[in-house]
Design goal:
mainly alpha, 3 domains
């Protein structure tokens, strides 16, 4: 390599140097298979693609966590749409299960992100995190995820020398048999593990069917009215209702929606300000990270509130047998437990509203601070403007020079019409060595006044001192007749 090329190579930073990851690093794309027991297949495949992109690009690697949250939230939204929407999910009372599944998926995605980071650093403990995520809902492909994690771990090969035979011997049948035996045993154990039925493959019983079943039993209720109640036929305890009287009022739903929209808009504003400060537009990864954060906040509040209502959907629950009289028109009065429950849930909604507003204020404050810092940096990068000359100092120097020139003319040593101030001072300095220093100083300070420039207060003080020195020395010199050149 020639010297110029060597110098150019030395100037390349490690971040800018081209890097082609080995094929073993793509084992990270197998890690999301550990979540197949919790997430649907399509979500796991998208996560595999995300982790594979993280091997190629550092930007995608940094966005793994929040983009994983976005994919998990998309799976939850897809399941809600499959149930018929949020209102149908509220009526079917499955939001509690969805909340548990959502939290498990979020923790699983976070565990895979942490485990991948540890494995990329060469630490074996990252495999324990992958194993813990997979054991939440065991399934056979967990072994493939563990194999991918072991494959992606870089570092020195710590296997016993010669475990694949002598150098150049390659793979032998005996070696393959010894490797196939533990793999087959592990697969057999994995398939023998209990296979939990994920929530994605189950559909709740529609409320209409349950209501129809109750109507079928209604005509026979009169014939069995005289039958003594048995412990097995005892009516279950009625579910607490959400009421609207004598409780803390809930915030309007429109206000909650507006607060959520404000948070989204503030996040978009922040995503526009940050790239402007860096001098480049926002990337797709950054937009996906922001969307994942917003979707996580929205789904967390919706699922927590929906599961807290017990599937009642915010309305009055059906009145149980003890609450209906002979005519079926009497409704049981609200109990203290129902008042407390309704007030607590309404307080949760108010807290969610305040949380959204606080996040909105924080995002806006951060965006405005970054924009102000960008403007200050831009102003600091501009070249400084020349300082305006001090008018008072200029006037003092002008007066000092005029007085000194008048005093010199009074002794017959005036300035010729063709002489510049510097030439005039040089001629007098040659004739009067005792006045050379003040004359040259006064001419030097007077030059910016005549030709343009800045004068400081110290220059004005020096000019006045030189003028006083010249006038004092002239009193000791005899006057001379003005020459023709001086005229």
């Amino acid at each position: 390599m020639s010297a110029p090329n060597a110098l150019l190579d030395d100037q390349i930073t490690p971040e800018e140097a081209p890097h082609t990851p080995p094929w073993q690093a793509y084992g990270a794309a197998l890690l999301p298979l550990a979540l197949l027991g919790v997430l649907p297949v399509w979500a796991c495949l998208v996560l595999c693609l995300l982790f594979g992109l993280g091997v190629r690009s550092a930007l995608w690697r940094e966005g793994r966590l929040l983009i994983s949250f976005l994919i998990v939230g998309g799976a939850i939204l897809g399941h809600l749409l499959g149930l018929g929407g949020l209102s149908a999910a509220l009526r079917s009372a499955v939001l509690g299960n969805l909340l548990v599944l959502y939290l498990a998926a979020l923790l699983g995605a976070a565990g895979l992100y942490w485990g991948a980071a540890l494995l990329e650093e060469g630490r074996r403990r990252g495999l324990w995190l992958v194993l813990a995520v997979g054991l939440v809902s065991p399934q056979p492909l967990l072994l493939l995820a563990l194999a991918g994690g072991a494959l992606m771990r870089p570092g020195q090969d710590d296997r016993r020398p010669g475990w694949l035979g002598r150098e150049g011997a390659g793979w032998t049948g005996k070696t393959a048999a010894w490797l196939a035996l533990p793999v087959a045993l592990a697969l057999a154990v994995a398939f023998a593990l209990p296979q939990p039925a994920p929530l994605w493959n189950t559909s709740p019983v529609p409320p209409a069917q349950a209501q129809a079943g109750a109507e079928v039993l209604a005509p026979n209720s009169s014939s069995t009215a005289s039958t003594p109640a048995t412990p097995q036929a005892t009516a279950p305890r009625p579910r607490p209702r959400l009421i609207t009287e004598d409780v803390i009022p809930a915030p309007p739903a429109e206000l909650l929606a507006v607060a959520g929209i404000l948070v989204v808009l503030a996040l978009f504003l922040l995503l526009r300000v940050i790239p402007a400060r860096r001098g480049r537009p926002a990337t797709l990864v950054e937009w996906l990270m922001g969307a994942g954060l917003v979707l996580t906040l929205v789904l967390a509040v919706v699922l927590v509130f929906g599961s807290s209502t017990g599937g009642s959907g915010g309305g009055l629950a059906p009145v149980q047998g003890a609450a209906v009289g002979a005519t079926g028109s009497e409704v049981q009065a609200p109990t203290a437990e129902e008042r407390r429950l309704t007030s607590f849930l309404n307080l949760v909604l108010w807290a969610a509203l305040l949380f959204y507003l606080a996040v909105f204020a924080l995002l806006v404050h951060t965006a405005l601070s970054l924009r102000g810092a960008s403007r200050r940096d831009a102003q600091a990068a501009l070249p400084p403007e020349p300082a305006a000359p001090d008018a008072a100092a200029l006037h003092r120097v002008r007066v000092a020079y005029r007085n000194a020139e008048t005093a010199l003319e009074g002794t017959g040593r005036g300035r010729a019409t063709h002489e510049t101030p510097q030439g005039y001072a040089a001629r007098l300095a040659a004739e009067l060595p005792t006045l050379a220093a003040p004359l040259l100083l006064l001419a030097r300070v007077y030059a910016p006044v005549r030709y343009g420039g800045s004068i400081s207060t110290a220059d004005a003080d020096a000019a006045e001192t030189a003028e006083q020195t010249i006038r004092a020395e002239l009193l000791t010199l005899p006057p001379v007749a003005p020459t023709e050149e001086a005229e």
